[in-house]
Amino acid sequence: MMSPSPSPNPAEIRFPRRELLDNAGVCALIDGVQVAVFYLPGETPALYALQNWDPLGRANVLYRGIVGDLNGELVVASPLYKQHFSLRTGRCLEEEDVSLPTYEIWLEDDTVIVTLRSSNLKTQEYKNA
Predict the structure, then answer these.
(1) 128 partner at 20 to 30 Å CA-CA among 14, 27, 57, 59?
(2) What tens digit of pLDDT does each residue of 18-65 get?
């Protein structure tokens, strides 16, 4: 369970770096939005944040996906139907018209900060139906 610190911005969450899992995801709740946060210590950048909602599987599960490299693209594979989403852009590699919002994330001292400000230009919101 993550231990978020108070933030002056409701669309932002802060939590200790020690709560991240190497080469895996955790889920953060920011202003009612589930965000999948991934830490890949061998990559630059090492932190990635994208929408946790899998629009094809229609469930909040992406933080449980397997991360890896697919033809030079860092991806997370949905645990449901195994589609691959780019950690950098949110784009689905198998479905061209599907893309997830990615969010700004950074490390400040030993604190991870995630904000709902989009880090990609083309985002498509999906409603939890």
Answers:
(1) 14
(2) 999 999 999 999 989 999 999 999 999 999 999 999 999 999 999 999
CB neighbourhood size of 6 (10 A): 6
Q: Rounded to an integer, what distance in angstroms lies between the CA atom of residue 59 and that of residue 52?
A: 8
Give the domain CATH number at 104. Answer: 2.102.10.10
Query: 10 Å Cβ neighbour count for 77?
Result: 17
What residue type is 118 in one-letter code? S
Whole domain around residue 83: which residue ranges? 21-118
Residues 6 or more apart whose CB falls under 8 angstroms from that of 40 comprise: 22, 23, 46, 47, 48, 67, 74, 87
Query: What is the Cα–Cα distance from 29 to 48, expressed in whole angstroms?
Result: 15
**Domains in the chain: how many in total?**
1
Q: Would you say 83 and 56 are in contact if contact means Cβ atoms under 8 Å apart?
A: yes
Q: What DSSP designation does 14 have?
A: E
